[in-house]
Amino acid sequence: MAEAPERWTQATVYDDMWVDPDDDPRNSDGVSPDGELPTLQQYLGDYRLTLLMKCAELDAEQLARRSVPPSTMSLLGLVRHLAEVERDWRTWVLPGSETKLYGPRDADFDGAVADPAVVETAFADLEREQLATDALLLSHTDLGERVGPQGIAIRELWVHRIEEYARHCGHADLLRERVDGRVGQ
């Protein structure tokens, strides 16, 4: 395995932060949003932005780099995986409505190769799938409404999405640090 990069950060105020708090686009002034749905949307939005921040300023090779063999996990694989699961969550509401984006199990990670076209497609897929899932869930105004054959609550789908992004942002922290030493909060 290649030598580990030296740890570094762009933050100047706190040496263990990704960026200084005043420069962090996830920080907002004022009070938290009123209401359950706006709160869920803010948390999901912040995790989505965190993932993009972890991928910023990296080339195709760095995004596709698998840092802990034999794992196939990479930053690019995470982007593709999250696009795939955004699509999959829609099938929980409308069974059979979607097909796999990248193919059978683990194709999202296996196909995350160091090709600029693959990178461009992955980020476009993620944005498109996020918008489609957001639109579907927002069409159900009652967060307690139960949908699909399993009777899952719309609220649970919002919370599950937050959990999925939070989990993978933790992976992204470690993957990014292994790529170039950048640490993050």
UniProtKB/TrEMBL annotation:
<protein>
    <submittedName>
        <fullName>Mini-circle uncharacterized 19.1 kDa protein</fullName>
    </submittedName>
</protein>
<dbReference type="InterPro" id="IPR007061">
    <property type="entry name" value="MST-like"/>
</dbReference>
<dbReference type="Pfam" id="PF04978">
    <property type="entry name" value="MST"/>
</dbReference>
<feature type="region of interest" description="Disordered">
    <location>
        <begin position="1"/>
        <end position="37"/>
    </location>
</feature>
<dbReference type="InterPro" id="IPR034660">
    <property type="entry name" value="DinB/YfiT-like"/>
</dbReference>
